[in-house]
Amino acid sequence: MSLIRRRALVSGRVQGVFFRQACKQEADAIGVSGVARNLDDGRVEVVAEGDADAVERLLAWCRNGPSSALVTRVDVRDEAPEGVVGFRTA
Predict the structure, then answer these.
(1) Yes or no: is domain 3-79 CATH 3.30.70.100?
(2) Given 38, 57, 73, 77, which residue is catalytic?
(3) What is the per-residue pLDDT across 44-76, written as a single tens digit (0 to 9) for each?
């Protein structure tokens, strides 16, 4: 298993539409650790760590989000894995 970590900044109508909770459910289902948190500028930050394929699956989900969201942009950058366990919302 190849452990990777990516930080995504998700723009659009992504706050107040259950994006973070739905992201946690998706991450838990595919075994990705990390966090989803609202930012003051209206974006959601998603930090995802785990198997490369699973992280990419979560990021692909983030490009659409839950049905109530309207994602307009996702900016992703690589980071060094930190060994995070579990996925949480903040």
Answers:
(1) yes
(2) 38
(3) 999 999 999 999 999 999 999 999 999 999 999
- Is residue 64 among the annotated active site residues? no
1's tokens: 């298993």
Q: Report domain extents, the chain.
A: 3-79
Strand partners, 67: none
Indicate which residue of 5, 6, 13, 20 is catalytic: 20
Active site residue 7: no
pTM for the model stands at: 0.96
Characterise 25 by phi-psi region: left (phi > 0), alpha (psi -120 to 50), beta (else): alpha
Residue type, 53: D
Give, as one character, the DSSP assignment of residue 32: -
